[in-house]
Amino acid sequence: MPEKELLEQFNVSLCEFDSSQWSRDGFLDPINRVVYINGDLSPETRLKVILHELGHLEHNSKDYERLREKYEVQANRNMIHELLKNENLDDFNYIHFMEKYNLTTICDETFVKNEYLKLKKI
Question: What are the structural domain ranges in the chain?
């Protein structure tokens, strides 16, 4: 899905910054529904970051520090699920998918496999 449609679907705005302003890839302002993203990112990384930040929309920011690991894992799973929606699942190779999006952890691998199986059942 094109970036503009994705942002419209989730009713969020996008604001770019450059690496000299913040040393991170992106973050979410849930109150104003704005995803802030590093404008220097590659297209694949940019999409990953946007999808990850959208995964935080339903999280309660007051609980973030206490539930940080849980929220980050949930946002990553959301990102992987959304990335998989754009793949040809009939000719899917999860290793190529993980390499394409630089997914490197065992947790990422597990999510890719699980989310793939969920989407194949639909």
Answer: 3-121
Q: Quick check: 44 and 78 in contact, CB under 8 A?
A: no
**70-112 per-position pLDDT tens digit:** 999 999 999 999 999 999 999 999 999 999 999 999 999 999 9
**pTM (predicted TM-score):** 0.90
Q: Look up the CATH number of domain 3-121.
A: 1.10.10
Three-state SS for the chain is CCHHHHHHHHCCEEEEECCCCCCCCEEEECCCCEEEEECCCCHHHHHHHHHHHHCCCCCCHHHCCCCHHHHHHHHHHHHHHHHHCCCCHHHCCHHHHHHHCCCCCHHHHHHHHHHHHHHHHC
Residues composing the chain: 122
